[in-house]
Amino acid sequence: MMIIVLTTQVEELLQARVVRASFLDVQETDPNQYEVRSGAYMNVVNLSQKKCSCCMFDVDKLPCIHAIAAAQTANVSRISKCHPYFRTEYLRLGYAKSVMSKDETCPLPNNVVEKRVKTPPVRTQSRRPKLTRAEGPFEIAMQSKRPRKAHCCGNCGHTGHNRQTCND
Question: Is the model's pTM score more than 0.70?
Answer without folding.
Answer: no
